[in-house]
Amino acid sequence: VRRRTVVSLALLLAAAIAPAARAQTRTLTGRVYDDATQQGIPGALVSVVSGTAVTQAGPDGRYRINLPSSSLRLLFRGLGYKRREIAVDASSTTLDVALTKEALQLNEVVVTGTATTQERRNIATAVSTVDGDKISEAPSASLENALQGKVVGATINMNSGAPGGGAQIQIRGVTSILGSGEPLYVVDGVIISNAAFSSGVNAVTRASGSGATSNQDNAVNRLADISPEEIETIQILKSAAASAIYGSQATNGVVLITTKRGRGGVTQFHITQRFGENRADRLLGSRHFTQSTLTDVIGATSAKQYCPNDPCSYYDYQGELYGQRDLAHETSLSASGGTDVTKYFLSVNDKKDPGTMINTAARRQNVRINLDQAMGNKFTTSVSASIYRSETARGISNNDNTFTSPIYAFGYTPAVVDLQALGPNGKPIDNVLLKAVLGTGSNPFQTISAVKDYEDVWRQVGSGSVRYSAWANQNQTLSLSAMGGFDRFDAEGSTYSPNYLQFEPDDGFPGTAVQAEGLVRQYNSSLNAVHTYTPQSNKWLPGITSLTTATGFQYEDRSQNRYSIVARGLLPGVQNIDQGTPTLSQNRSIVRNTAFYGSEELLALDDKFSASAHVRAEKSSVNGDRDKTFYWPALSAAYRFTNLLPHADEIKLRASTGISGNQPLYGLRDNILVPNGLYDGRNAIAEPTTIGNTNIEPEKMHESEIGLDATFFENRIGFEGSYYNRTITNMLLTAPLAPTSGFGSEYINGGQMKTAGVELAMNLLPIRSRNFTWTSRTQYYSFQSRVTNLPVADFVVASSGFGAQYGRGRIASGYRSTLIWGNKQLADGSAKDTVLADANPNFQMAFGNDFNFHGLTINTLFDWRKGGYVSDMTNNLFDEGGNSWDYDKASPDAAVGKTLGAYRYNLWNAGRNAGEYIHDGSYVKLREVTLTYPIPSRFTQRFLPGSRDARLSFSGRNLHTWTKYWSFDPEVNNFGNQNVVRFVDLAPFPPTRSFLFGIDIGY
Amino acid sequence: MSRTLKAGMITVAAGAVVTLAACGDRLTVPNFQNPTVSSISADPVAAIPLLATGVMRDDRGNMPGYVLGVGILGREAYNYTPTEGRNTTGWLTSDVSNSTSFGGTSLWSGPYFTVRDAFNTLAVIDAAGGTFTDAQKNAMKGLMHTEVALSLLYVINTRDKLGAPVEVYDDPTKLAPFQSRDSVFNFIIGTLNQAATELGAGGTSFPFTLPSGFTGFTTPANFLKFNRALAARVNAYRASLGIAGCGAARSAACYQQALTALSASFMDPTASLSVGVFNVYSAASGDVANSNSNQATTAIVAHAKADSGVLKNAAGTLDARFTAKVIKLSAAKAPPTNVAGVASQWDYSVYALRTDPIAIIRNEELILLRAEARYYTGDQTGALADINLIRTKSGALDARGAFASESDFLDELLYNRRMSLLFEGHRWVDMRRFGRLGQLTIDAPSHVVVNNLPVPQAECLSRAKAAAALAGPGC
Fold first, then answer.
1. What distance, in Å, lies between the first and last C-alpha atoms of chain A?
2. C-alpha dihedral sign at A808, A811, A817, A823
3. Is the omega angle on the peptide bond into residue A572 within 30 degrees of 0, that is, cis?
4. Coil, helix or strand for B21?
5. Looking at beta carbons, which residues of chain A come within 8 Å of B456?
6. Cβ–Cβ contact A911 with B under 8 A
7. What is the residue-wise DSSP string for B132-201?
8. Of A476, A673, A795, the CB nearest to B34
């Protein structure tokens, strides 16, 4: 049977779970290798056609399989290689097999359900897969970073250049305005949390109010805990038809992460050691002053004081503050081995990433154990457990109202005084320039060297599954499986700002200390039954190759508890929150879901036709009616034409349609009053700003997708194209109410949004010879999202910007949801709030090229974003402070402003022309370059005795950016991850370039 | 499919369905954060004190923003928050008239939230049945209606000729029409009078404790004096503006009503001028601090020309009100370099501490209201006596002689109102109602003095799809 039915959730984890072997009478060994390079193919799969024995080759391509002593056919498969079926006679004991590389990975296994998988060649939806090697080859701040430019249709943006990550993955554009905008992340079957908890830095920056946290704190979303080193593959379900198996959490796509598993055989060790450094990229610098220009900014008296002689001194503040060059290092150790019945994988990883800003760093450590055990020939179990620890000290960045965010302060501080100079207390001096002009301020060197902003996350993720082969005969199998998994972590944030800092007395409470805790517990479990029918004769089901029926039950529980304590007014040196005046807050939620599903997969017409149907029935605690069942159906079908065109190996047409959902958030369903704090020591309650809705339901996304996948010239050209059209109805909205009603808004279901897009990918093998191979990967995608019906008044998108003066998003019927709206000045001097630009890029492309020359490999990845406008508030800061590096350049119109900086600022006109600072964010980035050189065995034998192989690598990330964008990086967002639009650049942590030198040794 | 397999499938399916059903209870998750409406309405005795405190807390929360906002518009103060130039440009330049500006979006929704909370509290009072006596209910209703009137007064003070909606409906999606300025004022006085009737029938005590800023006004009878003080202010405004029903501007009819109200209020020329009703603040966790206080912010300063026109007495001593309320900064404070604004060397000490209260209305204003009402009802002598009382008692200035003309009286009245009510939210409103906005200082070429704030964008957008009759003026 070519159709592989996978009957266990364990197969979410790895492709290598074999049913227990039957009577074993001989062992076949050999090597699976690339026919051009002659190098072994790591992880190649070897299986018996119409049998059950399966094994996986080691890192060197060597395999070992137990076979019955009869003649049979073996199937050899390797990721990225064309499959090959070979007849083996009854007496063979060795067999070396060469596989041919192909441009499309047609034989990879794709997850289609909780307990089922299909081969890519038969899949009728667009599913992107990224191989673990591709994720870990270049240094990355977090997993998102490593995925940039590798997933067609996924918009991946880093929120800043701070160490430790913090990034957004948005799959196929905008799906929700109020609901979740995040994909669902599943690690080995466990739904994990990607929550982002601030460490409490808002208490210092006061970016938004005076509470401990805000969404402008540049927090790390917790996908950052997952180590790329432990990942086997990442599979991204994009269409509703593929993701509907996850029901009401699926509209944003599902990211299935599969960790590495033991391969059996002699234990193989792998050690990687990397060293390198991070450097700030694209620092802006600031204006070079003369006494006269300085007078314009800080007044004559101060100008004379701080710049006695022309020209004024110039200090490279940014270069100094973002000039930390500590050693970055990463150590990984893995072991994989076992027997036919017991297989294990162990990995240990420790990564330290110093930030480019002084006093910042990130460190991630993790240990993982994955165990697979066969018990007799009916039961298999798999257990996975991992512990993560992530520590970050990310300093301060983004918006602030205390001048503690360094770029913010630098925007207003003429660089004429040495701010690193030490004062009498041995600490950097106060920011005398800001003080001279504004009577307040902060010296970033003083602030950043003293403020502690630390997050410590301990996380455990574990899962276990049992599969029981209940029944099998010639043409039917039934298997039952049970699976459970959990994710729990506590994120301890602590922030401390000592009382002697310049800005601290401004609120009358010198000294700030924060404890901000985030506790997450979630677990999910399932029971599944899978039945496969493989007719031996086509008497009464003509043309059918196989029929797979799956059904099961799932339960999920997610809880989150966040609380914080801010203490202000501290005694000198005291960091505890029981000093000073405390403010407390807490936010808690529990979400529980139950679901029942059934699916049918059909393979027919000599495997050329495939079709599947799926439905999930779900209830959730977050719905208005907790007893109401919601149904999430999906249908898909594909047909593969062979020999349709000359040189076309295969052309597959596919179509799918499905409905997936997005749950209401916790609490929307409750009709509440709100605590209104204390008044004169007495409690108070009030009407809420937003009215709850006791009938709230999940939003529904109906998506239809058509696609064409083709390979040409013996698989040397591969093409994948998809077009999708999604209609989101029953949208979860914070519908505005007239302020005169005494309410701000109410939660409703309503309206309609449509998103349509195109995804194209072309894989080429232009050159393929014994000594030189060139693999090329090009991808393109674009989408547009439009609100087609809005039953309520237009409204501003929450956390999309800072008002009409700087641009922000608006939800308006008939308009694209990604537009930037803001002030445009009219002839009479008044301003009209109108469409200024689109934050959504026209398209994004990526170009990956891999070269292999005599074993030396060079991998490069370019990422091109065309269009996508950004509110460059950083530029506005520097212009407002009269301090931009290009301030003194020639003005296009002296009547508006004498110099370029004054021209820009005056044209902006206090926000009446918001468009002046809304800039094109197009860029081309050299995301990755990796050079790998295998150390010849004559050296490894001499210098690394006992080693199997070794290689040296040099890799770099974000090596160069080509852009006309004024500020640091058009990719950042002050508000972190956002559902609808992200385009605010306000004093971010500057982007980081990373270089690593590494050595990998296998034993 | 064999029978065994079928049975297996059915078993699993049935098991799953059973488990699904059994999980029904698990799906009941409480709201951890907030009390639900049903839990509150079930216990009015516990709920009403909480709701009533909430209404007064709403008003207290709006107060600092109101005082600062109208203070900036009336050239009393600046908000030079260094990281937000729009606190300057959004209030002082022509941008203030844009519905999206900092000024334009301000001082609108807050008072309506108070009105909504009062509306909700009134509904709970009505639904409380026999839990409370009729007198108790009347007392509570009188308090709520007074709060509603006060909130709407803050609204019309900032929107003036645009008018404002006054109705609140059960259905929050139902839009209330904009009423003309005159209708709003008449609605306010009507509401105050209704509240007075209710308070009059309110028995001897409220069924809850009032905050300490209401000390002296904690019984229905005393609270009525506060209500009448507000009625006096509103009547004086109506009279000076010539609101429909009051005759021409500054004619006697409504001033007479003001005098009547004053006599029923807590006005007392012999008492301390600072007797009155206050919003009190606290530094305690969960409570609210006075955000205009020097302790809470260094960004709020007095106008650059805070000292202009300040009188001295014969001994050459500056008006005591100025010296008591205005201090000189050690270093002048300015907005960021390119933001259009001027440096100021003055700061207020009106609210030094974060716990300092802000007056809602106090005796000193009432005496000045009486001076105004007396003058325009023909009692010039009485007016002069009141003015001199304030000049000498509050300002330590010399008493002055008779008014040479109406404009002489207005100069004197407005000077005293400025100094006596400095940074308490009056200057801009007073200059406007006597047509003197043109006399307010303009600091920079791009600055303007506006008559009123616009209708904020959120209000405009929420009415954009509604019938023309419901559209917001200027939207």
1. 36
2. negative
3. no
4. helix
5. 739
6. yes
7. S-HHHHHHHHHHHHHHHHHHHHHHHHHHGGG-B-----SSTTSPPPPB-HHHHHHHHHHHHHHHHHHHHT
8. A673
Could you count the other beta carbons within 10 Å of the beta carbon of residue A771?
A: 11
CB proximity B45 to A under 8 Å: no
B308 burial via Cβ count (<10 Å: 0-12, 13-18, 19+): exposed
| Beta-sheet strands, E only, within A355-475 | 361-375, 379-393, 452-472
Indicate whether A106 pLDDT > 70: no
Please compute the mean of the pLDDT values over residues A927-954 and round it to a whole number.
89
Q: What is the SS3 assignment for A324?
A: coil
Q: Per the structure block, which two tokens stand in for A325? A: 């060059």
Each residue of A118-142: pLDDT tens digit? 888 888 998 899 988 889 888 898 9
φ, ψ of residue A937 to 5 degrees: the values are -65, -25
DSSP strand pairing (A184-187 vs A254-259): parallel
Residue A827 near chain B (CB below 8 Å):
no
Cβ neighbors of A222 (< 8 A, separation 6 or more) are A192, A193, A194, A195, A196, A197, A390, A457, A459, A489, A491, A520
CA A807 to chain centre: 26
If you search the block for the tokens 């599903």, which residue do you land on?
A: A597
Residue B451 and residue B432 in contact, taking contact as beta carbons nearer than 8 Å: yes
DSSP assignment of A495-532, as one string? Answer: EEE-TTSTTGGGGS---EEEEEEEEEEEEEEEEEEEEE
What does each C-alpha distance from B154 to A473, A930, B151, B163, B188 come to in angstroms?
A: 83, 66, 5, 12, 11
Q: Phi then psi for B265, rounded to 5 degrees?
A: -90, -170
Contact A458, A430 (CB under 8 A): no
A533 touches chain B (CB under 8 A): yes
The whole-angstrom distance between A377's CA and the closest CA on chain B is 19
Q: Please tell me the distance from the alpha carbon of residue B256 to that of residue B246, in angstroms, as a whole number.
A: 10
Interface confidence, given as ipTM, is 0.93
pLDDT for residue A7? 34
**Residue A292 carries which side chain, given as an amino acid letter?**
S
CA A997 from centre of chain: 25
Give yes or no for a contact between B229 and B373, defined as CB atoms under 8 angstroms apart: no
Q: In whole angstroms, give the CA distance from residue B122 to residue B131.
A: 14
Place of tokens 């058509």: A706
Q: Are the C-beta atoms of residues A718 and A102 closer than 8 Å to each other?
A: yes
Confirm or reject contact between B82 and chain A (CB < 8 A). yes
Q: Which residues of B311-321 are buried (b: 16+ CB within 10 A; e: fewer)?
A: bebeeeebbbb
Write the pLDDT tens digit of every residue in A689-716. Answer: 999 999 999 999 999 999 999 999 888 8
- Candidates A740, A878, A880, A900, partner chain B, best to mutate (most B CBs within 10 A): A740
DSSP, collapsed to helix, strand or coil, labels residue B374 as: helix
Q: How crowded is residue A271: how many other Cβ atoms within 10 Å of its Cβ?
A: 18
Q: Is B111 exposed, middle or buried (0-12, 13-18, 19+ CB in 10 A)?
A: buried
Q: Where are the alpha helices (DSSP H) in A269-385?
A: 291-298, 300-306, 317-321
Q: Report the C-alpha gap between B95 and B90 in whole angstroms.
A: 5
Counting Cα atoms < 13 Å in the Cβ hemisphere of B85 gives: 26
Distance, in Å, from the CA atom of A236 to the CA atom of A232, rounded to the nearest integer, reads: 13
Find the angle CA(B296)-CA(B299)-CA(B302) to the nearest 5 degrees: 105
State the CB neighbour count (10 A cutoff) for residue A580: 20
Q: Can you tell me the distance from the alpha carbon of A139 to that of A995, in angstroms, rounded to the nearest whole number?
A: 7
Neighbours of B14 (CB within 10 A): 10
Strand A745-749 to A690-691 pairing: parallel
What's the confidence (pLDDT) of residue A24? 47
